[in-house]
Amino acid sequence: MQTYNEDQAISMRDQEIAKNIASLLNTNAINIDAKIASKLSYGRQKALANMATPSSRLALSQHGVLRLLGDYWHQHRLLITFMMCGLGIVALLLIQNSSNQDDTEQGDAFLLASDLPPEIYSNEGFGTWLSENTQQ
Amino acid sequence: MVVRKYAAIISYVLMSFLHTHIANAEDTTGKPWATLNDEQRIVLAPLADEWDSLRPWQRERMLEIAHDYPKMSPDRQERVQQRLSSWSRMTPFERENARKRYQQFKSLPPEKKEEMRKKWQEYRNSTPEKRQELRTQHPEIFGTEDLSAK
Hints:
The complex is a heterodimer.
Chain A: H1 2-30, H2 34-59, H3 62-104, H4 108-112, H5 118-121, H6 124-135
Chain B: H1 2-27, H2 38-43, H3 56-68, H4 74-89, H5 92-106, H6 110-125, H7 128-137, H8 139-142
């Protein structure tokens, strides 16, 4: 019972001291320089803003976190799809280029450089001779 | 942020590649003689006078020849230049037949090809009288007119 009274007395005294401090601060705040008051106000707002941002992130539930990951993945999936399509087109063009190069190995230039003149190749009789010798 | 940067770089590379590819494809059609580069002019010199009267697809074919030309040995390059003019005067039908038969000739057994090469070598080295005789005997091989200089 005695201990309870002592605790109550201490609590009352603490409250009294806190009131005195608040009163002193209020009294001095009136006399504070406007520049310092502005800086303090700015600092307070900044501190509150910093507190607000993580709290809003934290406020996101597990679903929110998953949703964020989902959005991130969705964006990258699209990006990867586009990149793969692009690479596919490049691969096709490269294959086409290389096959064209193969074709030019059998192109007109090589016909002209052949041991036989091109007029012989256009000769009907030579065509017959070729057919006979290909069948043998 | 980093991914976006890489995506931008890859997109740029892809666009550049496509642009170059399309530009190259367009380049080869209907080029006037004045726009040919030095190498092309040297190779296609026998066609200089008639180049601008050739049709775009004919010019394209000739430019393909100029493209393959540096891959050849000097003696084959000489043959190409000697035969360019007559080749450009052949009809599309004759040229198409020649292409088909050239491919057919290439598919012959090596000994058959060698046999034909030897016959042509002998024909070229023969006298005009002997060549005339050979043409009469084998028009299917040597044709009806003297092609030894070609």
